[in-house]
Amino acid sequence: MSRRREIAQRLEALSDIAGILSAMKGLALMEIRILSDFLLSQRRLVAGIEATAVDFLAWHSELLSASDSESKSESESESGVRRELCILIGSEQGFCGDFNEALLAHLEALSAHHEAPLRWVVVGRRLASRLGERDAIELVVPGAVVADEVPTVLLRLTRELSRLLPRSERATDGLSTLYHADASGELRLRRLLPLRDLPSAEREYPYPPELNLTPDEFLRGLTGHYLYAALNEVLYSSLMAENHQRQAHMDRALQRLDEDSARLRITYNTQRQEEITEEIELILLSADLLSHAEAEH
Fold first, then answer.
1. pLDDT at residue 197 above 80?
2. Could you give the CA distance from residue 215 to residue 220 in angstroms, rounded to a whole number?
3. How many CB atoms lie within 10 A of CB 83?
């Protein structure tokens, strides 16, 4: 009887765990629906800014040449040490499979083949705990758990970037981000600054754009808007991929729980049948003994 009770308690515990996992899966699905709308509008915004940048730089390509010269002089003054900053977007909470482990493996490969060490800003304390103490880590920023927390994370991240990237370097110092792309779930290393990796122009205009600012001022303002919008898109994209992985992780865990529960139910039923058989045998044995006793009398 004690063995069957242990199995019953185990089945009850698995049922409770399955309820928790199902709730976590439901929350992940809800976040995916919310993030889908946010990402759609954010990507349109980034595409509009990129199109504006393409049209502007088509008529002011000399600004890019000036930025390249400034970058070269800065690197020479620093004895060739690159000042590129890479933002690593990890997770703030767990139960999302190998989300952080994949980032860490890609980062190790990137560092091994890079021509010079990178500076890292880590978003997500789960990822930061996996990285440990490293000289390349400039800062650790808490990540977002739900979509509503992304604006707070973005505000803090841009504030820290303003400190790490002085205004004189913001258009020339390299800034990239390593994150999970939501569409495929694959890792993407995306270059944000300087403004180089832009889509090609879809059409050519016969006249230059009319500006109310000087080209230098316009480029600085455009760079700031682009950086803010692109980082917002990256944070939403990473959170979307994280929730997709969490949903898949919960599905696998629930499937394993179902398999374990099915095996335990079979064991439970087998144990119950053995107990019933033993009880029947005891009843029959008692009946035989009683019959022999009555016959003797």
1. no
2. 9
3. 18
The residue ranking higher by pLDDT, 279 or 49, is: 49
174, 161, 166: which is closest to 82 by C-alpha? 174
C-alpha torsion angle, residues 16, 21, 23, 25 (rounded to 10):
-160
| Structural domains of the chain ordered from first start | 17-198+214-251 (3.40.1380.10)
- How far apart, in Å, are the Cα atoms of 276 and each of 13, 267, 271? 25, 14, 9
Task: Measure the CA angle with vertex 91, ends 87 and 96; round to 5°.
Answer: 140
pLDDT in tens, 200-216: 656 666 777 888 888 88
pLDDT of residue 168: 43
CA-derived radius of gyration, the chain: 31
Name the DSSP class of 137.
E
Query: In degrees rounded to 5, what are phi and psi of residue 82?
Result: -75, 145
pLDDT digits (tens, 9 = 90+) for 170-194: 444 589 999 999 867 789 999 898 8
Phi-psi region of 53 (alpha: psi -120 to 50; beta: other; left: phi over 0): alpha
Contact 97, 245 (CB under 8 A): yes
